[in-house]
Specification:
This protein is of the alpha/beta class. Helix content is 29%, strand content 22%. The protein has two domains: 4-17 and 273-383, Lyase, Ornithine Decarboxylase, Chain A, domain 1, CATH 2.40.37; 23-271, Alanine racemase (TIM Barrel, Alpha-Beta Barrel), CATH 3.20.20.
């Protein structure tokens, strides 16, 4: 991915920084748009994956909506051009102020996760003389076959409403005068690479939807969330996920009612592969059983490996030497500040440039100032 001329350009820049290949991003967005448009599907970009204003403005330019999980994400979406009537707002813990922000903005839909949340939205909407449109986030009890930290659709998770609560939800909704039920929402987890999981989700939604139809509860849309994963092992060979097959699964197996819309909330699959974290080697240190390549980037710039042992491909883009194994670590005062163990890299020395790939999702978005570190800047390919 990185030509010698690109590496030369990088060598003049202070590190660490996030590098975004805008051609990869645009090619990905074009494919998502083309394949989703075949079926008239609505795609909302999951802002939590990457809230960089340039990235968001680019996503918005393709006509996508936004999927937000905080009041500030709603504000950022509006600031970067997303239309309020294309914004959905999810999250298990919406604050009063965040709900008010969404009501004032007149967003498309709240994805509601509990009866107490619906009570509060109804109360705040009444105070504002508004009617809030909502979808019920349902826990379909479908195992996403992904890391347990990013599974959201089984009954032991904190997310969503379980089937045993349906009767109480329906009874409560009948008493809420400032809420309009317009959808059913589902999201079963993240980084799902087994597409058969989405077929299973479709079949479960068909069953759940029928429960509501049997009670004469018809909704305008079904929202199947996101969760489609990317190939962290081969980011160049598989830079763009197979969106053709992904969207076709929902067309083939999900039974939509007449004029019922289907909505998606895609994040990682749209932006992960366009981004890399670029860092320099500070020191190479000999350990008892290994060598440590100590970088100037750490868990403050890319938290995923420390948070749930996530794999990212690591490349030394400066060296052509013989391969050796290194534990690639950061400078943060935590033993978990490690990007990879026994990583095979060309012979590595101080000031070599290291690229940590597939960092376009949950890299910059999860950055922190722990140890009072500066937030790393963002560099875009079309500005170099």
């Amino acid at each position: 991915m990185f030509s010698s001329s690109k590496v030369s350009e990088f060598s003049t820049l202070p590190t660490p920084f996030y590098y975004y290949d805008m051609e990869v991003l645009q090619n990905t967005l074009e494919l998502v748009k083309r394949e989703s448009s075949k079926y008239g599907y609505h795609v909302h970009y999951a802002v939590k994956a990457n809230a960089n204003p340039t990235i968001m403005s680019t996503v918005q330019s393709y006509g996508f909506g936004a999927d937000c999980v905080s009041g500030n994400e709603i504000k950022r979406s509006l600031e970067t051009g997303f239309q309020a009537n294309q914004i959905v707002y999810a999250g298990v813990g919406k604050s009063d102020q965040e709900i008010q922000t969404a009501l004032e903005s007149e967003i498309f839909c709240f994805n509601c996760e509990s009866i107490p949340e619906m009570e509060l939205i109804n109360e705040l909407a009444a105070e504002s003389n508004k009617v809030a449109k909502i979808a019920i986030r349902i826990n379909p009890n479908v195992n996403a076959n992904t890391h347990h930290y990013i599974t959201t659709g089984v009954e032991e998770n904190k997310f969503g409403i379980s089937r045993w609560e349906f009767e109480n939800v329906v009874e409560s909704l009948a008493t809420f005068k400032n809420i309009e039920l317009i959808g059913l929402h589902f999201h079963i987890g993240s980084q799902i690479t087994d597409l058969s999981v989405f077929k299973g989700l479709c079949l479960r939604i068909n069953e759940i939807k029928q429960w509501f139809i049997d009670r004469q509860i018809l909704v305008d849309h079904i929202n199947v969330g996101g969760g489609y994963g990317v190939d962290y092992n081969q980011p160049d060979e598989n830079a763009i996920p197979d969106f053709e097959t992904f969207f076709k699964i929902f067309n083939d197996f999900l039974d939509l009612s007449s004029n019922q819309e289907l909505h998606f909330e895609l994040g990682r699959s749209m932006v992960a592969q366009c981004g890399s974290l670029i860092s320099k080697v500070l020191y190479v240190k000999n350990g008892v059983n290994t060598k440590f390549a100590i970088l100037d980037a750490g868990m403050t710039e890319l938290l995923r490996p420390a948070l749930y042992q996530a794999y990212h491909k690591i490349e030394n883009i400066s060296s052509n030497g013989e391969n050796e194994n290194y534990d690639v670590v950061g400078p943060i005062c935590e033993s978990s500040d490690c990007f990879g163990k026994a990583v095979e890299l060309p012979a590595t020395k101080r000031n070599d440039l290291i690229a940590i790939r597939s960092a376009g999702a949950y890299g910059e978005a999860m950055a922190s100032r722990y140890n009072l570190r500066d937030i790393a800047p963002s560099i875009f390919s079309n500005n170099l």
